[in-house]
Amino acid sequence: SAVISQKPSRDICQRGTSLTIQCQVDSQVTMMFWYRQQPGQSLTLIATANQGSEATYESGFVIDKFPISRPNLTFSTLTVSNLSPEDSSIYLCSVVELAGFNEQFFGPGTRLTVL
Amino acid sequence: AQSVTQLGSHVSVSEGALVLLRCNYSSSVPPYLFWYVQYPNQGLQLLLKYTTGATLVKGINGFEAEFKKSETSFHLTKPSAHMSDAAEYFCAVSPAGGSYIPTFGRGTSLIVHP
Fold first, then answer.
1. β-strands B56-58, B64-68 pairing
2. Which of A7, A11, A14, A92 could be stapled to A35 by a disulfide with Cβ–Cβ 3.0 to 4.6 Å?
3. What is the pLDDT of residues B18-41, one digit of tens each?
4. What is the pLDDT of residues B59-106, one digit of tens each?
């Protein structure tokens, strides 16, 4: 099973700034995703991070607000830009092991508070 | 297309009592079904999954779930709740096979009283 680490684990940011979250996986994985979990809510898929090409964004999420990089099969970053209090959420990195019947593994999450 | 409905955003039980968390799904193709648990300030952890074969699936920490195709359900149970079971539980579904991303339910918060 994949082991995922995220940095930072939490941060408090000022309105209008940006935060970049790093996701590191201990093995090469094809499918890597970024989710948002707003307080008291379920997980919302932001985008699929594609290695070597632009990320695939879900409806309601755009690259200018959530730029994503994935330089290789074990690492990705998510930037949340031009922060507003509505961006206060937990951001989760996740990978899917297709050989494991689509089982997902999640990082510990990054808790973002925007003041 | 697939969707997941978790009945009850909060479930409260006494320690030692039966835990029942409900999950109903819809899927146009045979599904893979999952239950995840999220402890406070942590990421999600897989409890159990149904892919093929036996419809009663046993997971970690004494939890089990039964896939009932006729009822399109995958309810999670545990015979005796423990204080450490207090957490958020998410049911998820994905189409069997292929590179599909699971769809998650809204989650059920399990509260365990002493």
1. antiparallel
2. A92
3. 999 999 999 888 889 999 999 987
4. 999 999 999 999 999 999 999 999 999 999 999 998 876 656 788 999
Rounded to whole angstroms, the Cα distance separating B21 from B52 reads 21
Interface of A with B in 20-79 (CB under 8 A): 30-31, 33, 41-43, 45, 48
The CA-atom distances, in angstroms, between A67 and each of A19, A44, A63, B21, B102 are 11, 16, 5, 37, 23
Residues of B engaging A, defined by a Cβ cutoff of 8 Å: 32, 34, 36, 41-46, 49, 51, 90, 92, 94, 96, 99-102, 104-107
Closest CA to B37 of B45, B29, B25: B45
Distance from CA of A108 to the nearest CA of B (A): 4
CB contact set of B75 (below 8 Å; sequence gap of 6+): B20, B21, B22, B23, B65, B66
